[in-house]
Amino acid sequence: MSSQQPLKVVLINHADTIGGASVVTTRLMRALREEGVDAHMIVYTKTLDDDHIVTLSTRFRRSMMFMAEAASGAMANGFDRKHLFEISTASYGYDISRHPLIREADVICLNWINQGLLSIKNLRQLASLGKPIVWTMHDMWPMTGVCHHARGCNNFTHGCGNCPQLYGRKGPNDRSAVVNARKKRLYDMGNFTFVPVSHWLAEQAGRSSLLAGRPMEVIPNAFPIDFYITEPTHLVQSFNIDYSKNLIVMGASRLDDPVKGLDHAVDALNYLFDCRPDVANNALAVFYGSIREQSKLSRLRFPYRFVDRVNDPKMLRQLFASAKVVLSSSLVETLPGTLIEGQAGGAIPVSFDNGGQYDIIDHKKSGYLAPVGDYKELARGIVWALETDVDRQYLHDEVDKKFNASVVAHRYIDLFNRLLDKK
Question: What is the mean pLDDT of each run of 10 residues along the chain (423 residues)?
């Protein structure tokens, strides 16, 4: 593309700030614009004052579409409300194929498009335009029938069916098998390129009956690494924490989401408290994010503070710069952003190894990887990090090489141009 004709890209995501996929998609749009791409976003829910982000329809119609899709999921999973949003049937959504941004775009970039934004039918309408479609995969939904995380189930390797997340409604020809077959017909239209955000996610996709052998390229999420500092410029007093201690920081949008494995983190810290009181007496665990069951933290014997949600990125930057360790006990993660952000602040990442963590951590060099579910090994990782002198600037530089927003944007631009040249 010449300078007079900038590359036009439209990114489609459910929201602009709500949820991890929303945050990184907005970052990518802005990083692409910084590199001269005419990039815009179409979202279902908009919270930012940004003219390059547009919403669909009216709030009332969006609410109706969301409820219709939720009802479809509820019927599919036997009306199990507790697990309602673990699956998406993609039965309801908007036809955006005539939207001006879609019509003008050289490349369409799908992201997290569920919960009433796009249905399978709507995706077919986009595919029929003949434009290259790049699908950034933030979870497993593009490779499964209906679930966002397979949670150990391998049915996605042979077309789904008998889905364990369809509580009371599973069978060989259940909704997961039906949607899986619809996705296959969609992908056979041929203009999709899939972008897993981690090598672990790409490995899972390669096992999938839907995506094995299809065009695929791993590109990580973009992060504002330059925003993070490795030494605090001031101590955030409102957190009410003792900064003389070795801080072990763990955060999530919802700490007690089962996939975050909070119980394993508590077990690991209690194990340290019992076996290494010398470590515990000189350390403090700091938890941030929302939590529905405060009792999960109340069984901690290890010294800790819960600082609730941290909505100000500058405060979080100071917290990471003050921390010795950034901890994750997630049972599966596609590419855990808190580990990247913590390491960018000079904290040593310690995590279970079941997802995109190994794209971030070089074991016993830039962090520690423990077998998933082994809380004692996670505890040993914390001790290793507390007792090892790893240069904070080195940690920052390692994630800067991989996840810097400009670096990631250039990788996408290269992919877009190759697809257009091929077309």
Answer: 78 92 95 97 94 87 79 71 77 94 98 94 97 97 95 94 85 93 95 97 97 97 97 95 97 92 98 96 96 91 96 96 98 94 98 95 97 98 97 98 96 98 84
Are 248 and 283 spatial neighbours (Cβ–Cβ below 8 Å)?
Answer: yes
Burial class (CB in 10 A: 0-12, 13-18, 19+), 151: middle
- Are 142 and 260 in a shared domain? no
Residue 1 lies inside a defined structural domain of this protein: no
214, part of any domain: yes
Pairwise CA distance, residues 269 & 15, whole Å: 35
DSSP string, 364-409: TTTBEEE-TT-HHHHHHHHHHHHHS---HHHHHHHHHHHHBHHHHH
**Global confidence as pTM:** 0.90
pLDDT of 83 reads: 63
DSSP per residue, 321-370: HH-SEEEE--S-BSS-HHHHHHHHTTPEEEEE-SBTHHHH--BTTTBEEE
Residues 6+ apart with CB under 8 A from 113: 12, 13, 14, 93, 123
Of 412, 416, 361, 367, residue with least CA distance to 388: 367
With respect to residue 163, please indicate whether it lies within any of the assigned structural domains: yes
Helix 337-344 and helix 20-34: axis angle, to 10°?
A: 60
The confidence score (pLDDT) of residue 68 equals 80
The CATH number covering residue 366 comes to: 3.40.50.2000
Decide: 127 and 185 in contact? Cβ < 8 Å: no
**pLDDT tens digits, 304-363:** 999 999 989 999 999 999 999 999 999 999 999 999 999 999 999 999 999 999 999 999
Number of compact structural domains in the chain: 2
Question: Is the CB of residue 344 less than 8 Å from the CB of residue 399?
Answer: yes
Which residues share a beta bridge with 147? 87
End-to-end Cα distance, the chain: 14
- DSSP conformational letter for 155: G
Give dist(CA 342, CA 358) in Å, integer. Answer: 15
For residues 245 and 198, state if they share a domain: no
Same domain, 74 and 26: yes
